[in-house]
């Protein structure tokens, strides 16, 4: 089941229903067992895959998370409680965990969607606050050294896709665990998944620029294939975001529109079950354009409409 990447790194593809459908978990070999980076969505299918790995004789020393989105943290509590493996997160990730288990999370998330014209929360969206309901065993912050297996990696804070997103970089081997910061085949979704309005696209663009300072031969993404030309891929993402921003700006030149209106114009009519990711992409673009003075918003009948500044 393990796919060998380097002498001490293996990839395990965790499959699960819904969402991206799979996640790359990485196992770093160490003297006391493997360090697992990211775990997969909490599901029977993902747990069965991990049980097969563990019964094969592989020992896990600890779990480390790049960020706390559901597909990355989903099995962490299970590892801690059932396998008795310590779980390590960033201090900022711990704050995100607490936000995601707050009592009014679903209500506030729904309010955000409705305020920007969306029809509401998809019926199939499950409340998974329970996966965040545990206390991590250790924490890290920006520019610290962390052991993944036998090798030392620098923690690099790259907010945008998630406020608590971190990459892990080994300068000697020119390897970066890149999580969902950069993916090979698709653009990572930039959204407001905690239900609180912010400007993550501004952070993301800054974080893309940041990792240019980390020469990398192998980047290990959270989904899809390995990236061997990281700087080139970063350039492609930067160009794509600029094109999308110009597209959104053009759509609000003549009249005010909600984020949901923009989503429908760009992506077409979407089933309520699958609209969230493209909607979030449009919303965060509008918020970014507002932050640089390209658009302004006004509230009309309880909804925010954005229009270009003249």
Automatic annotation (TrEMBL):
SMART domains: Lactamase_B
Superkingdom: Bacteria
SUPFAM superfamilies: Metallo-hydrolase/oxidoreductase
Database matches in InterPro entries: Metallo-B-lactamas, RibonucZ/Hydroxyglut_hydro, Sec-metab_biosynth-thioest
Transmembrane segments annotated in the record for this chain: 266-288
Pfam families for this protein: Lactamase_B
Residue span(s) of domain Metallo-beta-lactamase: 22-223
Keywords: Membrane, Transmembrane, Transmembrane helix
The protein, known as: Metallo-beta-lactamase domain-containing protein
Originating organism: Oceanobacillus zhaokaii
């Amino acid at each position: 089941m393990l796919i060998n990447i380097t002498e001490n790194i293996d990839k395990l593809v965790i499959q699960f229903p819904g969402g991206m459908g799979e996640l790359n978990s990485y196992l770093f070999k160490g003297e006391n067992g493997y360090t697992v980076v990211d775990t997969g969505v909490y599901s029977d299918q993902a747990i069965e895959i991990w049980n097969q790995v563990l019964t094969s004789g592989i020992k896990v020393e600890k779990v480390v998370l790049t960020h706390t989105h559901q597909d990355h943290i989903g099995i962490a509590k299970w590892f801690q409680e059932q396998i008795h493996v310590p779980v390590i997160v960033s201090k900022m990730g711990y704050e995100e965990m607490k936000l995601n288990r707050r009592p009014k999370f679903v209500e506030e998330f729904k309010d955000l969607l409705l305020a920007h014209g969306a029809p509401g929360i998809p019926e199939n969206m499950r409340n998974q606050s329970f996966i965040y309901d545990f206390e991590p065993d250790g924490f890290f912050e920006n520019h610290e050294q962390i052991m993944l297996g036998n090798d030392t990696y620098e923690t690099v804070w790259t907010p945008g896709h998630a406020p608590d997103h971190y990459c892990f970089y080994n300068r000697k081997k020119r390897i970066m665990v890149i999580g969902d910061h950069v993916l090979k085949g698709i653009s990572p979704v930039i959204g407001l998944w905690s239900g609180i309005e912010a400007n993550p696209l501004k952070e993301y663009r800054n974080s893309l620029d940041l990792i240019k300072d980390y020469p990398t031969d192998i980047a290990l993404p959270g989904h899809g294939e390995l990236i061997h030309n990281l700087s080139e891929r970063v350039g492609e993402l930067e160009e794509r975001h600029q094109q999308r921003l110009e597209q959104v700006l053009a759509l609000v030149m003549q009249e005010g529109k909600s984020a949901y209106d923009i989503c429908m114009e760009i992506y077409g009519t979407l089933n309520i079950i699958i609209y969230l990711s493209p909607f979030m992409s449009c919303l965060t673009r509008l918020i970014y354009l507002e932050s640089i003075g390209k658009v302004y918003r006004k509230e009309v009948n309880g909804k925010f409409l954005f229009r270009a500044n003249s």
